[in-house]
C-alpha cells in the first residue's frame, strides 16, 4: 500500500476530529512517518490496520461521536476490516473457503 493511503486515512480521522478520534489520527500520522519500515513488514502492517479497526469499532460501540459522523465511521470500520482481512489472507492466516458461494441470486434479482 502506498503512503498516500495511510495519509488519506489520517486525513479522514482528522476531519472527524474530537478527543475520541485523536488516538486513531495520531497512530495513522506516526505510521505515515514510519511507512518505510511498516511496508517492509506485513505483520506490522497487519497490526496497524487491526489496531485502527479496533479503535474505530470501540468509538462506534461507545456511541460517543457526533451523529453526523456515523456514516463515515461505519465506512472506515468496513475499510479497515477489509484491509486487515486482506493482509491476513495474503499471509495465509485465513483462506477462502472452497465451499463458499460463487453465485448470488438475491443480488441478481434487484440488479437485473
Radius of gyration: 16 Å
Shape: globular
Strand content: under 5%
> Please, what is the oligomeric state?
single chain
Low-confidence stretches: none
- Count the domains: 1
- Fraction of helical residues: over 70%
Termini Cα gap: 35 Å
How many helix segments? 6
Q: Give me the strand/helix succession.
A: HHHHHH
* Strand-pairing-aware structural class: mainly alpha
Biggest sheet descriptor: none
Mean pLDDT: 91
- Please provide the count of β strands: 0
Q: In short, what is this structure?
A:
The protein is an all-alpha fold.
Describe the fold and architecture.
The protein has helices at residues 3-16, 22-33, 35-38, 42-62, 70-90, 105-111. It has 112 residues and is mainly alpha-helical. The chain is globular, with a radius of gyration of 16 Å. The protein starts with a helix and ends with a helix.
Keywords:
single chain; mainly alpha; 6 helices
Topology:
Blueprint: H1 3-16, H2 22-33, H3 35-38, H4 42-62, H5 70-90, H6 105-111
